Amino acid sequence: MLTASRLKHLYFAYFSKPTSDRVIYRAIRRRRVRKILEIGIGKASRALRMIELAQRGASGDTIRYVAIDPFETRRPEAGPGLVLKEAHRLLKSTSAQVQLIPGDPSAALARAANALQNMDLVVVSSDYDEQSLADVWFYLPRMLHAGSQVYLESRPSLAADKTLCLLARAEIEARAGAKGRRRAA
Asked: What is the pLDDT of residues 119-176, one digit of tens each?
C-alpha cells in the first residue's frame, strides 16, 4: 500500500497543475535535491511544493531554498507576485533554510553568487527575457556542481503554456561565455 507521502509525490509529479512543473518535481525526488535556487518565484506555489518534496526525501537533512525575485518592484507584465515580507512569512513556515534576495537577477547574483555554491537545482522563471538574463549565465557555472540541474522556463507565446527545459552543462557554459566578460576570481 502506498503511503500518504508517496501519494503526494505521485500527485505532484504526474497530475499537478501547471503540467510544466511536473518535470521538476520528478527531478527532486530522483536526485535527492537539498539546495534549490529559484529565479522568479511569482506566487510561490511551486516553491512550496519543491521544498515539501525535497524535505520528504531529505532523511532529516536541512533543505536550503534561495529565491531571487523583484518582489515589490515586480513589473506588471511579469504577472502577480508576493511582497518580500509575505514571501518570507510563507516560506519560513516550511522549516527549510530560506534566503530571499530581492532585486533584478543580474544584480542579485552579482552580490550573492559566491555564497550560493553547489546548488542541486536551479529553476529560472519565464518572467525574464534573454537580455535581462545575460549576466545571470555568467555567474551560474560557479554555483553548480557536476550533478546540478538547471531548468529554464519559457513561454513561446502568450496563448501557449509554459514549458521547462533542462539545460545541458555545455549550453550553460556557452551562454556564460556569450556575454564576453572576463573578471578575476
From this structure: 999 999 988 878 778 889 999 999 999 999 999 998 766 656 788 999 999 999 999 8
For residue 64, give every residue at least 6 positions away whose Cβ sits within 8 Å of its Cβ, in sequence order, or none: 34, 35, 36, 96, 97, 99
Sheet with strand 35-39: strands edge to edge: 97-102, 64-69, 35-39, 119-124, 144-154, 163-167
For 93, the 3-state DSSP assignment is coil
Domains of the chain: 31-178 (3.40.50.150)
Render pLDDT for 30-66 as a digit per residue (tens, 0 to 9). 999 999 999 999 899 999 999 999 998 877 789 999 9
Q: How many CB atoms lie within 10 A of CB 16?
A: 16
pTM value?
0.89
Q: What share of the chain is helix, strand, coil (3-state, %, to 5)?
A: 45, 20, 30
Centroid of chain to Cα 28? 12
Helix (H), strand (E) at residue 64:
strand 64-69
What distance in Å separates the CA atoms of residue 59 and residue 45, rounded to the nearest whole number? 23
Q: Among all chains, which residue has been given the C-alpha cell 525526488?
A: 29
Q: How many CA atoms lie within 13 A of 152 on its CB side?
A: 15
